[in-house]
Structure formats: structure tokens, C-alpha cells
Amino acid sequence: MTGQHGTSHEVLGRQVRMPVEVRKSSAFMAMYSVPTAAAQSLIDYSGLEILQFRPGRGLCVLVLVDYVDGDLGPYNEFGVAFMVRDHRVRGGSLAQDLRALATGKAGTLIHQLPVDGEFTMAAGRGIWGFPKTIADFDADHTGKVKNATVSQDGRLIATLSVKPGVSLPGSGAGTALTAYTHLDGLTRHTAWEMNPSGVRSRIGGAELRLGTHPIADELRALGLPRRALMTSTIENLGMTFGEAQSA
């Protein structure tokens, strides 16, 4: 059913037609090297395996998105994600992992996903199994340095700042990822198409401060804050989400 037109889901009394379109958003992200064993322990619930980019190290991505115009309305989002192997792969080698990264065959497990919109939370959880929870955001996507503070229940999760990088040519090219989620005992995968423009990237460039929230404790247990491998900012990001399928 992925990408199929015409199907719809009822969410809080509204019909959400598939595929779901995001016409305009902006984003910034930081990618970190984390110990494979600690990351795997954190995501064992999903049945998926951490992809390694070097022996004993996996990839954790922190991403902030400001959704401006989309089918689920305007809202802010903070994602904690891990690069994982395809759900049909078990015990892959480092060479296989690197090949998957190079060819776009790696998957992304969305481990935590605080948002500040009730409708998008209900839609995300009900349609795709995204682990969306309500949080408070103080975000600036318009300044030269992008930054955001995310809190939940009065406790700081994280403050992330990302400095501008170098403009990447050809950044308007579309890319596709497999997004994995796990909710209510079920692991799902969803086709996630992206059309970014105005992409700037650099080595390092992030400043991360962690609070006292349990999500902050998870990140701290992975060795964060530490120097980011790389950071990126995306001036405009269009996205399409297809139907979720059981993994």
C-alpha cells in the first residue's frame, strides 16, 4: 500500500489522505558516533540491528524540524534516530553496512519524536507508529546559527545549536529513506521521500546541552554530548510519507 493514492485514515474526526505531503519545512541536524553495544541495547525493543560505519560504532542523528505547510498542519519536531540495517538483514558485516550507507539502502529507526501538535501526534502514532509525544519548543530556524530548546513536563531534554556549513551543489535532488518505527509491540517501515533545497553541511559545528529528562539520560549514556561527526541545515524540505507496513 506504500505510496498508494486514495486510501485515507480518520484522525481526531478528520480524514488524512495518503500519501501525506509536507510542502514546506526547514530542518537542522547533528550526527554523532555512538558505541554500537550501547545503542543496540537501547533499540533492542524494535528487533532491528544498529548499522556500523566503523568497528564498534553506530550513528545517532538528532534533528529539529519546523513544519510550515503540510497535511498535518504546522508544528515543531525533535527526532532521535539511529541508522539501522534493513529489517531482513541479520548479522551484517562492516562491508555490507558501508555498502548500505553508500547506496542509500540503510534504514532510519525513529527512536524518540517529541512534537508540539496534538493532531500530528495522533496521526503519527495512529498511521505510522511514530513515537510522538507532546513537548515544548523554543526554536529559531531563521538565524545564521540554528538553535532549539526542547522540554517536556517542565524538564529540559536538550538544547541544540548548529552553525552554518558549506552549500552543497545539487541539493535539490530527491532522496528516499526507509523509516522504521516501533509502537505498541509492532515494528513498521514506511517509505519516506525527501526533496531538500538550500542544504549546507560541515564537519562538527554543533553545540549540545543535555537536561535532566529521561531522553537526555539516554543520550548521555551514549556518550553525548561529544563532537558531532557532521551537521547540516536545510532551508526548505519537502517530504512525502507513504503507508506503513509491518516489518
Concise synopsis of the structure shown:
The chain contains four helices and 16 strands. The model has no long low-confidence stretch (mean pLDDT 94). The two termini are 14 Å apart.
What can you see in these coordinates?
Helices cover 15% and strands 54% of the residues. The protein has one domain: Beta Barrel (Acetoacetate decarboxylase-like), CATH 2.40.400.10. The chain starts with 7 loop residues before the first strand and ends with a strand. It has a seven-stranded mixed beta barrel. Strands 9-10-11-15 form a four-stranded antiparallel beta sheet, covered by helices on one side. A two-stranded antiparallel ribbon has the order 1-2. The chain is mainly beta and 247 residues long. The protein has helices at residues 36-43, 94-102, 118-128, 214-221, and strands spanning 8-11, 14-17, 20-35, 52-54, 57-70, 75-84, 107-115, 132-134, 136-140, 146-152, 155-162, 166-167, 175-183, 186-203, 206-210, 230-246. The model has no long low-confidence stretch (mean pLDDT 94). It is built from four helices and 16 strands. It is globular.
